[in-house]
Amino acid sequence: MSWSPNLNSKPEFFDSDPFWQSLLDTFEQPGVAADALNYYRKNLGQGSFMVRALFPLLWWLGYLIGLLKKRPIQTSPIEESEVKRFLKRPPLKMPVLALIGENDGCFFPPLFRYVHSRDGGSERLFLNTSLCKTIQGAGHFSFIEQPEIVSQHLLELFELPSCGNSSL
After folding, report:
1. Element (H, E) at 134
2. How far apart are CA 12 and CA 58, in angstroms?
3. Alpha-carbon torsion 107, 134, 27, 40, what sign?
4. What is the pLDDT of residue 44?
5. What is the 3-state secondary structure (H, E, C) of 24-81?
6. Strand 130-135 relative to strand 96-101: parallel, antiparallel, unpaired?
């Protein structure tokens, strides 16, 4: 399954901007992909359903792909102390905008929306406003596939009084 099935080819800027080629070259270096995965595992909600259920599956998938490429991805397990520390953190006080493409092959859109709902426990993570929007006609890289729609959602977020806009 593709992360962005609607994105059939590389965007033009991948070939014209040396930054993107440098980024791709960097991820080919040993350990970089594992470090990137570990960053998300360490910082995105230890103890949440996403980390407890999905990241172990992603780890095994990455490990199997690594075996097929003869380059296993090394990741460290999440320590129980990290989970306890995360659960003691106060909820974020600023508004949060969570976007997902309707055809995202990396995250499962219905599960993503559930996790960001009150039923999914988002009140433990977000104190004020949490908006979860689905981007139609986009996959995982919605900011590339539908930049105008993503920009519009960002503008709506910035208009919220809790973002400092006192005109509302």
Report:
1. strand 130-135
2. 29
3. negative
4. 59
5. HHHHCCCCHHHHHHHHHHHHCCCCCHHHHHHHHHHHHHHHHHHHHCCCCCCCCCCCHH
6. parallel
- Which of 77, 76, 74, 57 minimizes the C-alpha distance to 66? 74
Domain boundaries, the chain: 11-87, 90-168
Query: Average pLDDT per run of 10 along the chain, which is 168 residues long?
Result: 66 70 77 74 56 52 50 49 60 79 79 65 60 88 90 88 60
Tokens found for residue 91 = 């909820």
- Alpha-carbon distance of 122 to 11, in angstroms, equals 34
Q: Which residue has the tokens 């962005």?
A: 4
Give the ranges where 51-166 is alpha helix by DSSP (H): 55-68, 80-88, 109-115, 142-145, 147-158
| Residue 57 tokens, joined | 């599956």
Question: What confidence score (pLDDT) does residue 97 get?
Answer: 84
H or E stretch at 20: helix 18-27
